[in-house]
Amino acid sequence: MAYTDRHRLFLQNFLVQRYMPQVAVEQLYDTIVQRTPQDNSTSAPLEEFLYAINRKLDPLSLELRRTQHQLTGDKVWALVNTRGDDIAQLATHYSAGKLTAFKKLVEAIMTAKDGNYCLGSTASLSLVQREGSSSMSKQLAQEFLGELVNDHWLVLSEGGHYTLAPRAILELQTYLKDEYPEWIQECHLCKDLVTMGLRCDYPDCNAILHVYCAQRYQSLQQNECPACRREWADRHTEFGAQALIPQRLRQSRLHHHMPTGTPDPDGSRLSSPSSSSPASSLR
Ligand SMILES: [Zn+2]
Ligand SMILES: [Zn+2]
User: Disordered: where is this region (predicted)?
Assistant: First the structure.
């Protein structure tokens, strides 16, 4: 498939955000196809179109990569630096002080006690103030935490805990594996990192799965653990940051897809007042 203006346009638009939910990617592609009728190459399926872009990006050590939001199950895309092995190379527009604070935050989240993969908002705030720079006021630290959420590195849970957002899981994968080999967990089914999910309770198994992977598997192979093949229904518990999600939001969020046009279609700000109202969270 030829590389055309459509690919260039798509990439230019994607670069502005570096991170997009699948629905937004589909919309962007449709819009570009409509606006470039002069492009007489047939409109290829989206996957093929993105594959052509990835071949162009490969020599630059960049790649469009897809994952699923661990909480909502929504598919999301990010532009990933495939050789980037340090936070400083990936989050280039933060100052040195902010980068240090971000690294310490990631460390605190990855090594959280009980494997919760999260850090309370008060602890996060004082960590940023302490590590950021001597001049970082409480307000600036708070703003920086907001910036990390807006930039899709962190998610703030409704209970007031920061945890890693899908972009961080995708882009920092190599970094996290290198820095925290004893702390990371991979999903038994898809092999991606998992920081919130479900764990098989049998002590000789303890397989960990994303919620969406477990659901997909359970709908095919009823009631068995994909690793040990024993009964699953009452023999699994919540793992990682999943345990912090309020009960009333857990099931609804897994099947929920926010309509386009809402301010936060990828659910990265779980605690914003609008997304926690009954009307939107239970849709
Ligand atoms: Zn998985
Ligand atoms: Zn098992």
Answer: 255-283
pLDDT value at residue 37: 79
The first and second tokens of residue 170, run together, are 């995708």
Query: Quick one: pLDDT at residue 80?
Result: 86
Residue 68 Cα to ligand 1 middle (Å): 9
- Token pair, residue 153, equals 């590195």
Domain count, the chain: 3
Q: Are residues 102 and 56 in the same domain?
A: no
Give the C-alpha separation, 160 to 115, whole Å.
17
Residues contacting 68, CB < 8 A, separation 6+: 74, 75, 76, 166, 210, 212
Per-chain residues with Cβ under 5 A from ion ligand 1:
187, 189-190, 210, 213
Q: Which residues of the chain have pLDDT under 70?
A: 1, 40-42, 84-85, 88-91, 246-283
10 Å CB burial of residue 201 (0-12, 13-18, 19+) is middle
HSE (side-chain half, CA atoms, 13 Å) at 235: 18
pLDDT at 193: 92
Q: Can you give the CATH number for the domain in which 213 is found? A: 3.30.40.10
Contact, 72 vs 254, CB < 8 A? yes
Centre of ligand 2 to C-alpha 242, Å, is: 18
| pLDDT (0 to 100) of residue 205 | 96
The β-bridge partners of 238 are 198
Q: Are residues 91 and 148 in the same domain?
A: yes
pLDDT at position 247: 67
